[in-house]
């Protein structure tokens, strides 16, 4: 099953207008790295307008790092889908482990956000649902149970048709920002498990869904990870802040599409 590689940059709470400029200059100068792949940039929300002016290719999209499950109202500090899509967003990250860990996002809230994104009718948005186990869950051999439970809960009630709007990002929490990347074999084992789960739930549509790897993905380990059967691209944090390194990761993703 040929799935066009997808590379997502998650800037988290980093970046600046000048980094947007630097990055767009690099992308313009080396636009061949964008052939045959899709790229999504998730900057902090206040930098979306700077990116919106700079987005110049059909296959470079903008994404939000989080959304509110509410349509509008008294929710200080939050961003609705209307506001985000007006700022050019096509993709939304939901359930990132930092939101789960530091901002108390529980399964119920994550499910509400997934539902809000899927039922948003002003513009279609793609949900990037993040799942993954902590170090202690892995040590206790709970990886598959944790991932399955996260998928089951967040995708409860999602139809086969709606699954076309969903991407899964497997991000083992112990690998995020630690430099401890999962080996390609280990990542593939979990991706394979996720693929099986998706195909069981969504049938043929499950075999078409993208499953991305995230967690200390860098230029020097990207190609080996992207060579695995069910690793369709990456969700990149730290390395997406360095234009050269990010472009090298995009170019590694291209090798998958050959
Ligand atoms: O969203 C991105 C992930 O949390 C990975 O972050 P990282 O590449 O800095 O480890």
From TrEMBL:
GO terms for biological process: gluconeogenesis; glyceraldehyde-3-phosphate biosynthetic process; glycerol catabolic process; glycolytic process. Its EC number is 5.3.1.1. Its main location: cytoplasm. The keyword Isomerase applies. It is found in: Cytoplasm. It catalyses: D-glyceraldehyde 3-phosphate = dihydroxyacetone phosphate. Substrate binds at residues 10-12, 177, 216, 237-238. InterPro entries: Aldolase_TIM (IPR013785), TIM_sf (IPR035990), TrioseP_Isoase_bac/euk (IPR022896), Triosephosphate_isomerase (IPR000652), Triosephosphate_isomerase_AS (IPR020861). Pathway: Carbohydrate metabolism; erythritol degradation; Carbohydrate biosynthesis; gluconeogenesis; Carbohydrate degradation; glycolysis; D-glyceraldehyde 3-phosphate from glycerone phosphate: step 1/1. It is an enzyme of class 5 (isomerase). The active site is at residues 96, 171. Belongs to the triosephosphate isomerase family. Homodimer. Involved in the gluconeogenesis. Catalyzes stereospecifically the conversion of dihydroxyacetone phosphate (DHAP) to D-glyceraldehyde-3-phosphate (G3P). NCBIfam families: tim. This is Triosephosphate isomerase. It comes from Pseudidiomarina salinarum.
């Amino acid at each position: 099953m040929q799935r066009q590689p997808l590379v997502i940059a998650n800037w988290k709470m980093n970046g600046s207008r000048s980094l947007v400029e630097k990055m767009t200059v690099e992308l313009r100068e080396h636009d061949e790295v964008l052939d045959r792949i899709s790229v999504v940039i998730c900057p902090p929300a206040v930098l979306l307008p700077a990116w919106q002016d700079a987005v110049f290719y059909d296959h470079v999209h903008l994404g939000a790092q989080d959304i509110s499950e509410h349509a509008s109202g008294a929710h200080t500090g939050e961003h609705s889908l209307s506001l985000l899509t007006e700022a050019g967003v096509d993709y939304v990250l939901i359930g990132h482990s930092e939101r789960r860990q530091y901002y108390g996002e529980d399964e119920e809230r994550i499910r509400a956000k997934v539902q809000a994104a899927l039922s948003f009718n002003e513009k279609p948005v793609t949900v990037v649902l993040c799942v993954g186990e902590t170090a202690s869950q892995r040590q206790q051999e709970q990886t598959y149970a944790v991932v399955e439970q996260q998928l089951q809960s967040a995708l409860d009630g999602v139809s086969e048709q709606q699954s076309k709007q969903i991407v899964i990002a497997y991000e083992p929490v112990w690998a995020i920002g630690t430099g401890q990347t999962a080996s390609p074999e280990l990542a593939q084992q979990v991706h394979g498990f996720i693929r099986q789960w998706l195909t069981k739930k969504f049938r043929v549509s499950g075999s078409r869904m993208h499953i991305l790897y995230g967690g200390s993905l860098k230029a020097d380990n990207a190609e080996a990870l992207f060579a695995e059967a069910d690793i369709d691209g990456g969700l990149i944090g730290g390395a997406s802040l360095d234009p050269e390194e990010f472009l090298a990761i995009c170019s590694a993703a291209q090798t998958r599409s050959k």
